[in-house]
Each structure stands twice: as structure tokens, then as C-alpha cells.
Amino acid sequence: MSADLLVLHALRCCGSTGLARVASFTGLGESEVESELIDLAVAGLVTHHRDFGGWALTEAGKAADAARIAAELEPAGGRPALKEAFDDFLVLNPELLDLCTAWQVRSVDGVTTINDHRDTAYDARVLRLFTSFYERAVVVIAALSTVAPRFGRYSARLGEALDRTKAGELGYLADNLASFHTVWAELHEDLLATLGIARWSG
Questions:
Q1: What sign for the dihedral angle of Cα 46, 47, 52, 53?
Q2: Cβ 86 vs Cβ 80: under 8 Å
Q3: Of 164, 151, 158, whose CA–CA distance to 182 is shortest?
Q4: How far is CA 75 from CA 68, 70, 71, 191, 201, in A?
Q5: pTM, two decimal places
Q6: Measured between alpha carbons, how far is 163 from 95 in angstroms, rounded to an integer?
Q7: Using a CB cutoff of 8 Å and minimum separation of 24, what contacts does 173-180 make?
Q8: Region for 17 from its dihedrals, namely left if φ exceeds 0, alpha if ψ lies in -120 to 50, beta otherwise
Q9: According to the model, what pLDDT value does residue 77 have?
Q10: CA distances from 169 to 100, 134, 175 (A)
Q11: How far apart are CA 176 and CA 49, in angstroms?
Q12: How confident is the model over 78-112, as pLDDT tens digits?
């Protein structure tokens, strides 16, 4: 996938955002991302919001991304394989949401409360479940990558978020823009966009 399409598609999957998140999504340096964004803005495909310093797709950009992503997928004949892997993703998705909830809140004496992360044994149990989840998720992502290699970056990004959480940066599981949960949500959006499925199509 070309650099300009990577950047365009990053905004499709992440929504309005800044350079750092686009760079994380694409694996490109921030200076290269900025250069591509400027070119895309000149072409009328993206716009820069001065109020918060973020970038977003224009309507023309959304149409261009959809057309180019479809064109990339069709010659490879990979749609059936991608759809099969997406079905496997959907099996995992509710489990991930439950794990994020378990990380953020917990039951104490029958009362649901915010997890303040002072119970290290509890957190360790949840992290073990996340590790098991990750090991199964990378199998699905590997299947996606055989159709479109760009999906392979999700394994590394999820692994990095999990490793940083285990190293004590607790926000990297479910509470910041580089978290495991956020990267998983981007993967979900990427699959929907690539397959041309509306978010609330059921």
C-alpha cells in the first residue's frame, strides 16, 4: 500500500486525529505523515482543523479511500478469506470488551466499583486473560495479513500496548489513544471499511 493511501486510510479508521496517531497507525515518521497530509489536503481529500490541530477526511477523501481500498482488495481475490477472518474477529470482539470492562471496574463485596489497581493479584489475573486473548487474536490477524499485509501491523501494536501495560504503564490497556482497546477498535473499523460494511449494519 502506498504511503498516501496508508495515511488516507488511517484517518478513515481513526477519525479526526493528530500526527502522532496517524504515524502509529501507518508506521511512518511524523514528518512523512505531515508531508502526505499536506499533499492530500491540496487534493481536497483531507482537511486540517485548526481548533484542535487534527486532520480529518473530507467527503471526497472518504470516497477516494473506499474506492482505493476496494481496488486493492479485488485483484487479489481475497474478499472471501477476509470475510472469514472477520467472522473470527467478531467471535473475539465481545470477549475483548468484557476484558476491558474487567480492567476498568470490578466487584468488591457485591458492589461494582472503579478498579483503582491497588489489588495487584486481581490485575495480574486480568492481564493473564488479556495475554491469552492476544495469543488467539494474532492468529486471526495473521489470516488477515495473508490477504492484505498491512493488517500485520496490528499484531505488533497490540503486543506493544500489552507489554507496556505489564511494565506498569496501566493506561496502555484501555485508557489512552495507543491502548490495546483503541488499536483493536481501529482494527474493527479497518475491517468494516475494507469489506464495505456499514458500522450499524447488524
A1: positive
A2: no
A3: 158
A4: 12, 9, 7, 17, 26
A5: 0.91
A6: 19
A7: 173/100, 173/103, 173/127, 173/130, 174/100, 174/103, 174/104, 175/104, 177/17, 177/21, 178/21, 178/24, 180/100, 180/130, 180/134
A8: beta
A9: 66
A10: 15, 18, 10
A11: 21
A12: 788 888 999 999 999 999 999 999 999 998 888 89
Q: Which cell numbers in the block locate residue 167?
A: 511494565
Here the cell at position 19 is 500526527
Q: Helical H runs in the chain?
A: 3-14, 19-26, 30-42, 59-73, 79-104, 120-147, 153-166, 171-174, 180-195
What would the grid cell of residue 184 be? 483493536
Distance CA 151, CA 187 (A): 8
Residues 6+ apart with CB under 8 A from 185: none
